[in-house]
Amino acid sequence: MTNTLPRWMDLVLLPVLNLAMALAVASLVVWTIGLQPLQVIGLLVRGAWGNASGISYTLYYSTTFVFTGLAVAVAFHAGLFNIGGEGQAAMGGLGTGLVALAALQWAPGLPAAVLVPAMVLGAMLFGAAWAAVPGALQAWRGSHVVITTIMFNFLAAAVMGYLLVEVLKEPGTMDLQSRAFEPAARMPAVHDLLLAVGVDWPATPLNLTAVLAVVAVVAAWWLLWKSRSGYDLRASGHAPAAALYAGVDPRRQVMLAMVASGALAGLVGVNEIAGVHQRLLPDFVAGAGFAGIAVSLIGRNHPVGIALAALLFGTLYQGGAELAFEVPGFSRDMVFTLQGLIVLFAGALSTVLVGPLARLHRRVQHRAGGGLSDAAEVRP
Questions:
Q1: Average pLDDT, whole number, for the chain?
Q2: For a disulfide at 58, which of 24, 318, 336, 342, Cβ 3.0-4.6 Å?
Q3: DSSP 6
Q4: Rg, Å, the chain Cα set
Q5: Whole-number Å distance between alpha carbons of 208 and 151
Q6: Cβ distance 30 to 294 under 8 Å?
Q7: pLDDT band for position 32 (50/70/90)?
């Protein structure tokens, strides 16, 4: 008898139980080093959600994780494991920066209503183009996308480093950064918008890219489950032979998945470069592309689940930073340990509870069915 779970158990209950196991093991680690687990968890939650500043930082981090998580999920539904989100996000930042720098050089004075959408488009195009090459190698040459996307992460770092050293570096400084963008080349900050309507909100990196993240969640859901292209993509990923027999071109689906995946990852550059730094910097992705793998796994590769998992990781990032200040002996490494445990239980050990849950579900169904049968036998 196969260990299959109802959809609600697979999408909701199983991730919650995996997260609970990760937190239980993390609590044991915290207790081992002499700290109180409940106190640490309480401080973590308060640091992330207990005030306006913490909420804003949590949403800011979560925005980035939504993009990288969706990038992994879209490729996964096509049967591809895209672990190149790090490089695709870096290229998205490069596309964002090049649009802003080109406007500064050749078209100064462009209004934000023109420049900001152009930067968003540049991020998506550069991310999509960077993912399209491994996609094409997979589709036409059989080169495994896991290997090529790993290589392209390193290539992206090398390209960004070369351009910042040799071409784009701000004159008169030794820092590896471009010159600052003009004020119009800035994704509006949330605190500025709230201040304009009379709401006093602390200054944080949270910007309107968070709205783009919501749009991306809805768009990914529509693409995967409401469009013909998404149906073909999922069919090609989950039943390649059947999809090919039905006339679905597998190479087209590989390219569609990788291009969409890269475009989503590229939007990280909008959040970081256009929304926060206002200039090109190296290493601004800071591991978010790899964290997106865990976000997608915890979210069961569904856009809504990914949004919730992104909020969880945003909470860990912001709450962990607060803990490092508030609790003596609690370092940032402990936050990475907690993240690692979540990845372990949501990824490598995600199916440990499938068997027990399936047996428990069958037992409950059997008892319910038996009770109905007995009642039917004694009914006059």
A1: 90
A2: 318
A3: -
A4: 23
A5: 32
A6: no
A7: confident
| Residue 63 token pair | 């925005």
Dist. CA 317–CA 294, nearest whole Å: 14
Q: Is 149 helix (H, G, I), strand (E, B) or coil?
A: helix
Instruction: Tell me the C-alpha distance between 253 and 261, whole Å.
Output: 12
Please count the CA atoms within 13 angstroms of the CA of 6 that sit on its side-chain side. Answer: 10
pLDDT score, position 171: 87
**Residues β-bridged to residue 178:** 169
Task: Find out whether 127 and 263 touch, Cβ atoms under 8 Å.
Answer: yes
Do 305 and 11 contact (CB within 8 A), yes or no? yes
Torsion angle of C-alpha atoms 322, 327, 333, 339, degrees rounded to 10: -60
Q: Which residues of 52-64 are buried (b: 16+ CB within 10 A; e: fewer)?
A: ebbbbbbbbbbbb
Kindly state the average pLDDT of the residues 50-77.
97
Nearest CA to 159 among 99, 94, 101, 97? 94
Residue 171 Cα distances to 161, 167, 179, 273, 282, angstroms: 16, 10, 8, 19, 17
DSSP string over 166-225: HTSBPTT--SS-BPPPPTTSSPPBHHHHHHHTT------S-BTHHHHHHHHHHHHHHHHH
33 burial via Cβ count (<10 Å: 0-12, 13-18, 19+): exposed
CB atoms within 10 A of CB 288: 24
What residues pair up with 189 in beta bridges, in sequence order?
207
The contacts found for 244-253 with CB under 8 angstroms, 24 or more apart, are 250/139, 251/139, 251/140, 253/78
Residue 301's contacts (CB-CB under 8 Å, 6 or more residues apart) are 72, 73, 76, 77
Q: What's the token pair of residue 2?
A: 């196969």
What are 345's two structure tokens?
């239980």
Q: Which two tokens stand for residue 188?
A: 């509006």
- Higher-pLDDT residue of 96 and 27 is 96
CB 299 within 8 A of CB 292: no
Give the separation between CA 38 and CA 333, rounded to whole angstroms: 19
